[in-house]
Structures are given as structure tokens and as C-alpha cells.
Amino acid sequence: MTNQSPGNAIRRKNRASTKLQPDWWSKSFAGAVLGLTLALALAGLFAWVGPGGLYAPDKRQFVMWMIAPLWVTVFSLVYLIPTGKRALLILGGLNLLAFGLLFLVRFISEGRV
Amino acid sequence: MKVRSDILRIYRSLHTWVGITSGLLLLVGFFAGALTMFKQPMDRWINPPEKRMPWIQESSLDQLVAQVMEQYPSARREFTLYPIEREDLSAPMVWTETSGGRELDLSAEQRIASLDSNGNLKTDIQMPSRFGDLVDMLHRTGGIPGFTGDEYLGVYILGIAGVLYFLALISGVILLLPTLVKDFFALRYGKNKKRFWLDSHNVVGITSLPFHIVISLTVIVFAFHGEFYEALKEVVYPNQERAQEMGESQHRNPQDILPPSQLLQKVRAEAPGFDVTEMLYMRLDSPRPLVRIAVYKPEELVHGPVTGYVGVDPYSGEFLLTAMLPGKAEGWGAIVNYFFALHFGSFGGSLVRWIYFFLGLSGAFLFYSGNLLWIESRRKKLRKNAAPDTLVTQPRNLQWMAAITVGATFGCVIGVCLAMVSGKWMHAVSDNINYTYVNIYYICFAVAIAYALWIGVGRATWHLLLASSLSCALIPLTSFASWLIPGLGLWAYTSLPVLMVDLTAAAFAVVLMFAAVRSRRRAFSGNTDSVWSAYKDKKSQAPGLDRKEFPI
Asked: What is the ipTM of this complex?
């Protein structure tokens, strides 16, 4: 009978909402597309601020090689985000942040040159 | 380790779906990839002897090149020298009259050249056997024909499969976490066949996980590197088109190139202890000429599938490219070399090649067993929902999936083996042996799938295993026949790498035969509601029949 108390019902509802939802399409889209663009931005940041600077010999190759592991790591973990909507929001936000940083770094560095 | 059940449920679905969609494609890629480890020995096994020319001293290469440059304008753009003799090579100097392009040209004739004992130039035309290159193409495309732009369509599709494959690896590891300690290395061999298959699937997957992660990542990069570079150029790197300063684009006269012996000397000084196996002269009449020199030392970590490379200017002898020379790369370039070497298994001589060969085959096993496990789990589900005491009949799509899995797997094995054998048997009658290889492969592949669909997977499995075993056996038997009956016009070499090809094929013939016997037993004595049972292939057979007397 105590189960019927309003407090427990709310708690149960909360637990249900933290349960992972499959949301295959939205999560997979977030992983496949937003994960890829995020990987591109992170690799780009590494190109500018990582060791050796932008034009270290052969670094462009290494930067290119970074994209795939970053991308698929994000892709494979995106399903841990509870809902598809939140996955889109989180990855979208991270994209904005990473690209914002990348363009900031580019702006500062190129301005200095 | 505890993992929440909702996480497990989602990653189980993910594992199932990426496995089912990409498994068969990756299976073909892994099988052919394992074979590419010994691409050169297979080519040595196959190459017909009748056009082969005598090799010449290294010092005579200078004379050979000078004479060809003078007499054959068609060689003045691109040619290749092979200082060291091998059975898969026909002459120390080779060029194609119509060269260029990275794709495999199956109908390009080669002109081959050498010197006779008096130092006079002799040349011939041959249609080279490209069996090794075709296996390599099967490896890179999964056998999917066609182009998009100037790249093979199959390469892109395998790139996508590489992404799905990585998802399958991660989800598979997550699924295993709760029972990792208990199940690890536990091979429960008993009545429950599914348990055994699942245990093997897990053990192989976990023990070779680093290899699989490396392969999946490199496959993605190999497929999409052009797109990635393009994206980096657009978004990351400053927009300064560093216009290639062409200088005065002087076109040099290919007759002025340095003698090869001088280049060989320079390269030996730069890379002591290495054999020079190939010198590819490129763009000789252009402003940017290059000799790509392949250097080989078994135990060294190298950038290429077999050899390292060094780029030299053919006119000045200046080193243009040393980043792919083992030990000479520095910084980021050296790290990138590791990525290539880890995919190609080119860092520890024959031992590593053998390890990669078996890792590649174990990868193929992973996809094969994965598909079978999915089929079995679906069967379980159906049986649970069925009324007791009724024999569950498996739905069509499950039957089809099982048949396609078995047909594709063994069709691929049979196709490659028979194509290889045809290199000797069809050599005399085929206009272009390369098209024979391709046709035989695709016919075998298609027929095996059609056969499994038609006859039912229960019987098709052991029939196709038997056919695979016999196809493998044909490889050593062909060598044996050439020795036994000289009149057949066959040939066989006796160098160690070639003998190993025969020996390995014989060993696999035995293993596959063993598997065929086991599989037949299961078809007639296993659960009759399984797709692997041969009973339901004949509707009239009831499960109460004496199983031993079941007609084949």
C-alpha cells in the first residue's frame, strides 16, 4: 500500500525517465553526423595548439588520422545518453563549443602573424 | 563488473544490427586480407615460366636501361626495374605501353626486357597474371564491383562497414563486461552447441581486440582519407593555396637519367642492410620525376605492405622522400608509419605475417560465428513462444540469412582457390587469365549462395565445406600433378615460399574436411527445429525417423 504514496510514484517516474531510451534514429544521427563534425573540430584544434604547431612536418597526416578514432569513439558512446533529443543537444553543444574554440584560435593566431 | 540492464539491452540490439548488416562484407574482406599476407608467394606459385627471361648482374642494369631508353620511346615515361630475381617476376625490366592510374588494369600488356649473354637487348610482350592484385582488390572492396568517381565503390562501402565494425566491437565488449571474468577463456564444450559457439566468438573477439580496433580504424581512414583531408583543408588550415612553385618547368630528356647502379649505391649507403627489390621510375618526362625505390629487410617496421620506400630524383640522385624509409622518419611521420605497418603487419618479418594471417582468419570466424549466433538466438525465441510438443519451423528470412551466410563464406573460399588453380590449368587456353580469375570467383560465389538457398542450409553447409576442402586440396594436387605427369604442361617451383603455399593449402584442406564431417553429423543428429538440421529440407521427413538412415 505504501507503494501508492505520491512520493514513491514520482520517484518511480524519475527512474523511468533516466532509463536509456533506444531512440535509434536520433542517436545514430547524432553519432554519425555530429560525432564526425565534432571529431573534425577537435582534430583541427590539435592541429593549431597541439605540439609542433600548424606546420610541423607530416603533422597534417597525423591530424587526419585523428578524425576516425575520435569520430567512432563518440559514435559508439552516444547510445549511453538517455534520450535521442538529449544526445542531439549535447553533441550539438559540444560542436558549437569546439568549432567556436577552433575559430577563436585561428582568429588569434592568424591575427598575430 | 555490473552493467545496467537497460545499457546491455541497447548495446545488444546495436551489436546485433551492425553485425548483421556489415558482417558478411567484412568476412570477405578479412578472408582476402589474410591471404594478402602471402600475396607474393601466391603469385610465385602461379606465374608461368615460359616467358621468363634470364636475370642479369646488377652492373648490367645500366646497360639494359640505356638500351631500352634509346630504342623504346614507350618506356621513357615510366618503367620498373627488379634487381633481385623472383618466380613471380618475368624479367628485370618491365613497362606498360599504356600506363597511369591507380586502378587495376586487367588487360594491360607488359613489355619485358633483359639482356642475353652477349649483352644484346631482348624484349617480349606478356599478359601478366595479376592474381595477387585481384586478391588484394577483393580485400579492399569486399568483391563489390563498380566505381564512384575515381575510387572503387567497394572501398567506400567497406569504409562504412569499418565504422559499423567499430560499433560492434565496443558494444560487444560492453556486453561481455558483466561476465568477463567468468566467461573469459571458458570454452564450454558440451551438449549446448550455441554455448560453445558463443564462447569461441567471445574468446576470439576479446583476445584479438587490439588487432580489430586497429583494423577498423585504418579501414575507415583508408576509405575516407581524401574526404578527411578535404574537410581539414576547408575548415582547419589557413586558406593559403601554397601554389606549387613549378620553377621553370623544364622537361628533361629521359635518356639523361643516372645509371641505376649509382642510385642503388646511394640507397645502400642510406639504408644499410636492406635489399632493393624494386625501382619504379615515374613521370620521367615531367618536371617532377621520381624513382620510388622499395627497400626490404624482414624484421624492420615499414610503411608499405611489404617494403619501405625511398624517393630519389632520377636525374640528380638527390633524395626527395625519406619519410617512408625505415628508421629515417621522425616525429609525426614516424607515428603515421606505425598506423600503416599495424594494418599491413609489416613490422616483424614472416612471423608477424603468419600471426596476421591467422588474426585475419579469426576475424572472418568472428563474423561467421556472429551470424550463426544471431540465427540460433532467434530460434530460441521462436521455440519459447511456440506451443509445447510442436516442431518449430524456422521462418523464411532466418533460413535465407543462414543460407546466405554459409553460401557467401564458402563461396568466397571456393572461388579464390579455384581461381588460383585456374591460373595453371587455364593458362594455355585463356586469352587473358585475369578475366578467368574474376569470372571463376564470381561464379563460385554466386553458385554457392544459390545452392545453399536451393538445397537448404542444413545440407548445404557440409556440402560446401566439402567443396571448400576439395578446392584447397586442388592447389597442392596441381603442383603434384605437374611433377607426376610432365605432359600436362603444368609447372611447379620448389623454393620455400612456393612450397609453403602448397603445404598451407593442404593443411586447410584437412581442416575443412574435418569441419565437413562434423557439420554433416550435426545436420542429421542435431535438433530438428534448427536451421542446421537437414530434416526440414524434406517436408515428408518427420523427426521420429531413425536419424542414421536418413538419405543424403
From this structure: 0.86
